Amino acid sequence: MSICAIVAVDRNWAIGYKGKLLVSLPEDQKQNFKVKTMGHPVIYGRKTLDTFPGGRLLPGRENIILSRNAELSVEGAKVMHSVDEVLKYAASEPDEIFFIIGGAQIYEQFLPFCDTCIVSRIDAEYEADTYFPNLDNLKEWKPIRKEGPIDSVKGVSFEIWTFRRDRRYKNHR
Q1: Residue 34: phi, psi to the nearest 5?
Q2: 8-50: pLDDT as tens digits
Q3: Which structural domains are found in the chain, ordered by start?
Q4: Fewer CB in a 10 Å sphere around the end CB: N or C, the chain?
Q5: Which spans in 4-125 are helix H?
């Protein structure tokens, strides 16, 4: 089993403002996010589901929603109620890559279990209230690949960085 966070950040590692993405980059969504996550389970919080168009699940992927609400049921998705429950499920699929796709609390809870992070670094700064940990400042994370820059129709460019955790720092359960 492999766990990978996939996220888009601005220059300050910001990811959102008032419950919404900072900017929607079609090129990142189609050429990066969709290509990498398609066919793999995606793990996210209920609030992230609320941001999807029409509240619809992501097609072509097993959707795993983490929620404290024991009553929550979402047709077509697996709803789990703890990090341990998700990790136990992920361990039952040893050859699978699980993608953590947000929001901030979910990223924070799962980052200690991630081996890889795919970070779309947007060359802009936005008003923000939600951040992803700055991997440049965390000794256990090392950049191993950079793609881009890629110009967006939104008038900004971005680079896609892949970070890998040094195995000496992996949180094993």
Answers
A1: -65, -45
A2: 999 999 999 998 899 999 999 998 999 999 999 999 999 999 8
A3: 2-169 (3.40.430.10)
A4: C
A5: 26-28, 35-37, 46-51, 83-91, 104-110
Token look-up 């619809």 returns 56
Sign of CA dihedral 47, 16, 37, 165: negative
6: Cβ–Cβ under 8 A, 6 or more apart, which residues? 32, 33, 36, 37, 99, 100, 101, 117, 118
Predicted confidence (pLDDT) per residue in 151-170, tens digit: 999 999 999 999 999 877 66
Whether the CB-CB separation of 152 and 22 falls below 8 Å is answered with no
Tokens of 6: 């996939």
Q: Which tokens hold the place of 98?
A: 């699980």
